[in-house]
Structure formats: structure tokens, C-alpha cells
Design brief:
With 428 residues, this protein is an alpha/beta fold. It contains 6 helices and 24 strands. The protein is elongated and about 90 Å long.
Length: 428
């Protein structure tokens, strides 16, 4: 890349070396790491955007970072993301921070083909000390990245939220290796296999300088896209992950036993996906788990005993409209903090164990659409009497057509809604 300015001539070689240490020595000459197959047009475009981002960092960035600045690589990758999403037109607008210096929340710029019309939603919020572009983008006299602070030590991006922007592009994988604690890419138009390259980059694929002190990724939200394939095993090596949302995607495969590696996990949603197979016993190792939602997935089999025995802080287990089966363990009584138990429309049988009386915080119990027999324990209804608002007990306590006998009894007007074996439900 030929120099065009004094800084270009003096600093560019150093900055290129600083980037190459992390991104690869041939990053600006070859595109074989892009992972797009043999599409020469895409490869050429990717190289062009890398070089454009490099020249902007060297010559136009008001921060004028040195080659050893700890936020150099992340800043470069953010500029690269801008160029890769403006192949056909510039971003439409943006809102530099109007809040006091050091604010944790500012608005992101929009592209015309990302957000149509005027947006008044919170889509595109980026938090942390993130540089944002002025309305003229990267070109023009007023073009610059602004930041609540120019202090290099705190100018790292912490939380990236681009949900609801109709995005079909991925982040540069290595961007995730630098400082991101939270990524919200939900409600977009991501398609194709689950982006395993992201996790390969995060787990051992990039060497981060020891003095940078980057926090690990804790929140990942990719719900409401059109992602396919299975959950990559590399993701489960990210032991700091606490919040995972993959709902409403076309994912397949199973929830692997590696789920037990996520000892900080407190929320996971696989709702409305094609995830199948049994719930692995290793789920019991995720002892911080508060909420598990696999509703409307293809998961099946028994609920493992380890869930009852070890997830004692569980607040919500939502497994409605799956293929779970077997009986409910008497160990259910150990889940004393449980507030929502959703087991509707599965293949459970047996009785509802009396140990459910220990669940004094239970506000919603959905057990309809199964083969439960006996009686809904009256203790459930006694506990519900202490709560107001969104409380419910739904069971197959409506007389079945033909026999006139309900599948399960629910005495003393305990159930808020009764169903029969055809799926018809009536509120009490």
C-alpha cells in the first residue's frame, strides 16, 4: 500500500505490523481467511475494504492511534465493519452522544437498507466508550469518529446491540476477540450455518496482548434470524457466557453435553428451533441456571435427575410443546425457587408428585396435553393464593368427549384453566 501522507509514510508500516500481529501477516494481501469459498469478487471486495479501513485508521482517524495502542485492532475492525456494510450506499444517519461525557449508551448510525424510514426504536444502541461516526460517514470535512473520551485505555467497545436492523451481514469474526462482553444481533436477517467462525476466533484463534485486559463474552443474543445447522462446540468453550438466546432460528442437532462447561450460564433459550435429542445430564453442572426455555423445539426424553438435584436456583423451566416424556421426579421439591413450570403438550405420564408443595414461589403450572393421572396437589392452589397478577394452573381437568371423565382431577376450583384430551381448554 503506497503512502499518501506523512503519517502514512512514517506510521503506516508500524501500524500494519501492529495489526498483522493479531490478524495475520498476510491480512492485507490475501483473503483466504474470509471463508466465502472461491468467489473472487467477494475476495476482491473484502481486500479492498480492509485496505480502505487501514488508510482511514492511519490518515483520517482523529484519535491517531499508535501501532501499540491497546484498542487499535478493535477500532480497525469497527471501521472495517462500516466499509463492509456500505458496499452500495452510505449509512443514512447517526446520532453522536448528546449525553454527558462518559455516557454508557449512545445511538448507532443507520443505513437506508437497514432501517427504512425514520426509526424511533432503540435498535442500534451501542454502549461503552464506543466511537461513532458523524452523519457524513467516513468521508468529507466533518467526518470523524467521536467518543465520550479520547483516553485510549477506556475507548473499547463493551456492548454491541444491532438488533432489529434487517442486517444480513456478519461481524468480522476477530472483532469478538476484543472487549465485547455483550452482542445482540437478534431480529435481523442472518441466514445459513451458525457462525462457528465467531467462536473459533474467540477461543484460542486470536492472541490478545496481555496488557489489554479484555473481558470475556458474557451475553450472546442471536434470536429471530434464519440461522441453520447445529450449535458449534467452540461456543461452549467460552466459560464466561451467562446469557444465550437462539430462539426462532432454524437450528438443528442437539444440545451437547458441553453445556455443562458453562458454569456461569443463567439463561438459555432454544424456543422455536429444531434442536432435538434429550436434555443432557450435564445440564446439572450449570448450577447458576435460572431460566431454561426449550418451548416449541424438538427436544425429547426424560428430564434428567441432575436438573432437579443441582439446579436449585432455577426460576423457570419452559418445555411446552416438545416431545419430553416419562414421569416427574419427586426431586422436583428441591427446586424451591421455581416460579414457572411449563410442561404442556408433551408425553409425560404418572402423577404430579406431592413434593411440588415445596415450591412456594410457583405461580404458573402448565401440565395440560399429557397423560398425567390422579389429582393436581391442592398445595399448589394454596400457594397460588398468595400471589396476584399472572398466575395460572392449567391441567387436563375438563371432561373428555365420550367418557365424560377428565384425565386428571383438580379440586376446589384449583385450576385456572381445564383442558380435555382433544386440546380444548376452558378458563375456570
Amino acid at each position: 500500500m503506497a503512502p499518501t501522507t506523512t503519517r502514512d509514510a512514517v506510521e503506516a508500516p508500524k501500524i500494519e505490523i501492529g495489526l498483522a500481529i493479531i490478524l495475520g501477516k498476510n491480512y492485507f494481501q490475501h483473503a483466504e481467511d474470509i471463508g466465502e469459498g472461491n468467489d473472487s469478487e467477494i475476495d476482491e471486495f473484502m481486500l479492498e475494504t480492509r485496505q480502505s479501513a487501514f488508510h482511514w485508521i492511519v490518515n483520517q482517524d482523529p484519535m491517531q492511534l499508535e501501532f501499540d495502542a491497546p484498542n487499535l485492532v478493535q477500532r480497525f475492525l469497527l471501521v472495517l465493519f462500516y466499509y463492509q456494510t456500505t458496499r452500495h450506499q452510505q449509512w443514512k444517519e447517526c446520532n453522536p452522544p448528546a449525553t454527558p461525557q462518559g455516557s454508557a449508551s449512545i445511538k448507532f448510525c443507520y443505513k437506508p437498507d437497514i432501517v427504512t424510514g425514520e426509526s424511533t426504536s432503540d435498535s442500534g444502541v451501542i454502549s461503552g466508550s464506543l466511537p461513532v461516526m458523524n452523519a457524513s460517514g467516513l468521508g468529507g470535512e466533518s467526518a470523524q469518529w467521536t467518543s465520550p473520551t479520547r483516553d485510549h485505555s477506556v475507548a473499547h467497545l463493551n456492548r454491541l446491540d444491532l438488533h432489529g436492523n434487517m442486517l444480513s451481514v456478519m461481524l468480522p469474526p476477530k472483532l469478538l476477540s476484543f472487549s465485547l462482553e455483550s452482542l445482540h444481533w437478534g431480529n435481523n436477517q442472518l441466514t445459513g450455518p451458525f457462525p462457528a467462525r465467531w467462536f473459533e476466533s474467540l477461543h484460542g484463534g486470536t492472541t490478545i496482548p496481555s496488557d489489554v485486559g479484555m473481558p470475556p463474552l458474557k451475553t450472546l443474543r442471536l434470536g429471530n434470524n434464519s440461522l441453520t445447522g447445529s450449535l458449534p462446540l467452540e461456543m461452549f468453550q467460552l466459560s464466561a457466557l451467562g446469557f444465550l438466546a437462539f430462539d426462532q432460528n432454524d437450528l438443528t442437532g442437539t444440545l451437547p453435553s458441553e453445556i455443562g462447561l458453562l458454569t456461569h450460564l443463567f439463561y438459555i433459550s432454544l424456543k422455536h428451533t429444531g434442536i432435538a435429542g434429550t436434555l443432557p445430564s450435564e445440564i446439572g453442572l450449570a448450577t447458576q441456571l435460572l431460566e431454561f426455555d426449550a418451548s416449541y423445539s424438538n427436544m425429547e426424553g426424560r428430564i434428567p435427575e441432575e436438573l432437579y438435584a443441582k439446579l436449585t436456583d432455577l426460576v423457570a423451566f419452559m418445555g411446552n410443546d416438545c416431545n419430553f416424556s416419562g414421569t416427574i421426579s419427586s426431586s422436583l421439591g428441591r427446586l424451591t425457587g421455581l416460579q414457572w413450570l411449563g410442561l404442556a403438550n408433551n408425553n409425560f405420564d404418572g402423577t404430579i408428585p406431592n413434593e411440588i408443595e415445596s415450591l412456594t414461589d410457583l405461580r404458573r403450572l402448565e401440565v395440560n396435553g399429557n397423560q398425567f393421572t390422579g389429582t393436581v396437589p391442592v398445595s399448589v392452589c394454596k400457594n397460588l393464593a398468595y400471589f396476584t397478577g399472572d398466575v395460572a394452573v392449567v391441567a387436563d381437568c375438563l371432561p373428555n368427549p365420550g367418557t365424560g371423565v377428565p384425565t386428571i382431577e383438580c379440586g376446589d376450583d384449583c385450576c385456572t384453566s381445564c383442558c380435555d384430551n382433544t386440546g380444548v381448554c376452558l378458563a375456570d
